[in-house]
């Protein structure tokens, strides 16, 4: 059996990824595909924490720009992440993967409250843990939530799944001249204003020496390749 490069990871998924080819909502086929790939890395013995965005259902920042109170808009976005988390939990458990949703916004009828020690215990027992509700506070993105949860559970790496195969100096979907970076330092990401994660999340990772690997989620098997230590995507570290 091939030995994975990481024993405990934090996988960051965008909400938009769950929509697939749809403009919004959740594609059951896409969720099943992701759950199958997550099952593969669990079978390698890797402990998996997941943070999912809510942009396929509701974007608090966009609503705020249209005049809604930012705090109310962000609270609505947190609820969207809970919906996505429950959808992924359902798909994972149907695939035979024991999964727990822990929410920073308490709603005990549908998810466990987030308690760090409980989350770590679930991971140690081999359960996939999905962290819902962001940080539980407005004005913080799910990227920041991913960085925070990764540090709290002592994950060895954040795997940032995107629509492209790494970090570029400009949008590769719009420009054929876009240059891909094989690796970047945290400071380079901040100084260049690269929008792969928000500045708060990158700063947290920099302060705690937590590497981030940005890779293409849409290519089948990529999550497993990253976990096995293969060089794909872009590595962000000090």
Keywords:
238 residues, alpha/beta, Carbamate kinase, 9-stranded mixed beta sheet, 18% strand, globular
Shape: globular
Helical content, roughly?
A: 25-40%
Fold-level CATH name: Carbamate kinase
Count of spatially separate domains: 1
Distance between the termini: 31 Å
Low-confidence stretches: none
CATH architecture: 3-Layer(aba) Sandwich
* Radius of gyration using CA atoms only: 17 Å
Biggest β-sheet strands, sense, barrel: 9 strands, mixed
Using DSSP, what is the number of strands? Answer: 11
Give a brief description.
With 238 residues, this protein is of the alpha/beta class. The chain is built from nine helices and eleven strands. The strands form two sheets. A nine-stranded mixed sheet has the order 4-3-5-2-1-6-10-11-9, with helices on both faces.
Topology:
Elements: E1 8-13, H1 15-19, H2 28-42, E2 47-52, H3 60-65, H4 70-94, E3 99-103, E4 112-113, H5 116-124, E5 128-132, H6 142-152, E6 157-162, E7 167-168, E8 180-181, E9 183-184, H7 186-192, H8 199-207, E10 212-216, H9 222-227, E11 234-236
Parallel strand pairs: 1-2, 1-6, 2-5, 3-4, 3-5, 6-10, 9-11
Antiparallel strand pairs: 7-8, 10-11
Q: How would you describe this structure to a colleague?
A:
- The chain is an alpha/beta fold and 238 residues long.
- Helix 2 packs across helix 4, helix 6 runs parallel beside helix 8 and helix 7 runs antiparallel to helix 8.
- The chain contains nine helices and eleven strands.
- The chain has a single domain, classed as Acetylglutamate kinase-like (Carbamate kinase), CATH 3.40.1160.10.
- A nine-stranded mixed beta sheet has the order 4-3-5-2-1-6-10-11-9, with helices on both faces. It has a two-stranded antiparallel ribbon with strand order 7-8.
- It is globular, with a radius of gyration of 17 Å.
- The two termini are 31 Å apart.
- The chain is 39% helix and 18% strand.
